[in-house]
Structures are given as C-alpha cells and as structure tokens.
Design a protein that fits this description.
Elements lengths: L1 H21 L2 H4 L7 H12 L6 H12 L4 E25 L4 E27 L10 E10 L2 E5 L2 E3 L2 E24 L8
Antiparallel strand pairs: 1-2, 2-6, 3-6, 4-6, 5-6
Helix pairs in contact: 3-4
C-alpha cells in the first residue's frame, strides 16, 4: 500500500509539472505594465493644477504604443538657437525592479529657437532591465507652446521606446532632431 501512495504522488507531481510547463511564463508572473488610469493618477499627483490635458495625452500614448512597463517623473530645462541642449532629472518607476533616480541630457539640431522648463512624465516601453535605459534614445521633437501646455514625442533605441510627455512653461517653437542620453548619476556630457 505504501508503494501505491508513492506512485500516486509521483504521478500527481508529474501532471502538476506538465501543467506548469504548459502555462506561459507571462501568465505565471503578475502584469508588469501600468494602466492608463494608474499613469493618469501618478501624473495628476505630479503635475498638480496644470494636469487638465494629461489624461488625453496619456490615452493617446497608450492607444499608440500600448501599456508601458515603466515611467519616469521628473523635470527638465532646455534652450535652443537652431542647436540646443536639454538636461533633466527624475525617478524611474517599475513594478518589478523598484524605483531609481535617473538623469538625462542631450543635444538637438534643427529649426528650433527659445527656452523652456518642463515637468516631464516619460512612458517607457519594452524595458528589459533598468541598466538597459542607460543609453542614447534618438528621435524627432516638435515644440509649439508660448505659455504652457502638454507636448508628446517618441524616442527609441534597441527595442526600447521612451515617450516623453512634457508640460512646458516658456517660449519655444520649432522642430529638431536629437537624442537624450540617460545616466544613473548626475553628469554633464550630452555627447
């Protein structure tokens, strides 16, 4: 009778292992992405009174790119007279890896003039690890605000997409090509 119980236990263990192997790994792990409602809530807390247009911008980003698996809340400043520079700092939030301080800087070149300061929410898609963020993300940026408002753009590198949502204050108008370089420490070397 003891051997019969051992065989049943072994059979049940093999069936359980086969079922576990058949279930995709993504179904076994909790969802690592952030919903639109979570992003809007975090953005409203961060942006405060100027967040009236945030929900529409976040919904547009999520409908275009899906749900991000990370986001950055921070602030940045920049200026340009055809060539420009941008510098910022903030916190990266992820479900699985925690929160990390990040910095970004980058040059731009184009038909762009003015200066701005912005509170920024960056939606991060396809981030396999925090270290994968520490690289250059290139893209085209367009700015058209005189007093304030939300702007959205998309940058990409190595299968990762970063979508900055900026609420800018200042006077800036133009279109430019450039990149943002993310670092774990405050440095000033956009190149």
């Amino acid at each position: 009778m003891h051997a019969s119980v051992s065989r049943r236990f072994a059979t049940c263990a093999m069936v359980a292992a086969a079922v576990a192997a058949a279930v995709p790994a993504a179904a076994q792990q909790p969802d690592a992405s952030f919903s639109s409602a979570e992003l809007v809530n975090a953005g409203n807390k961060f942006f405060g009174e100027i967040s009236s247009g945030l929900a529409a911008v976040v919904e547009k980003a999520v409908s275009s790119y899906g749900q991000p698996n990370g986001y950055i809340l921070g602030q940045e400043g920049g200026g340009a007279i055809f060539g420009g520079l941008r510098y910022g700092e903030g916190m990266l939030y992820t479900r699985n890896a925690g929160s990390y301080k990040v910095y970004w800087q980058g040059p731009s070149l184009g038909l762009d003039i003015g200066a701005d300061g912005a509170r920024t929410m960056m939606l991060v898609y396809g981030l396999p690890s925090v270290d994968a963020l520490y690289t250059r993300f290139g893209g085209v940026d367009g700015s058209a605000y005189v007093v304030g408002g939300f702007g959205i753009t998309a940058l990409a590198a190595g299968g990762i997409r970063v979508v900055p949502v900026r609420s800018g204050v200042g006077a800036r108008l133009g279109v430019n090509v450039g990149y943002l370089k993310f670092t774990p420490e405050a440095t000033w070397n956009p190149f």
